[in-house]
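Page 47, continued from p. 46.
Same chain as before, 106 aa.
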Amino acid sequence: MKGGYFAPPSIIWLTITLIVIAVALYEEDGMVRLYGEDYVRYMSKTPFLILLPKKIESILLYPTKKILKSCKPQKSIEYFIVLTIYYLILTFLSIAYNIFLNLNLY
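Result:
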């Protein structure tokens, strides 16, 4: 359609995914406050959302570890910073991928 801007579907999916992750992290913090050490032990034995190989998990957590010096945000501002950085990284990769596709179509 001419004369308008529509966000690429990848941006919409990225936004929804990061919202789901943010809600899951918020709920996880609530569970830690409610159940304490029992829930922390449970978290150490189970993956967050999906099971990933350790190598992929360490690659995905690299930005968080570099920024916060830990694997998991502890404060609201840290959650905001980490999710914003991942959003920017994934948006950049999505845009670069779309440009790459468009360059190869012609």
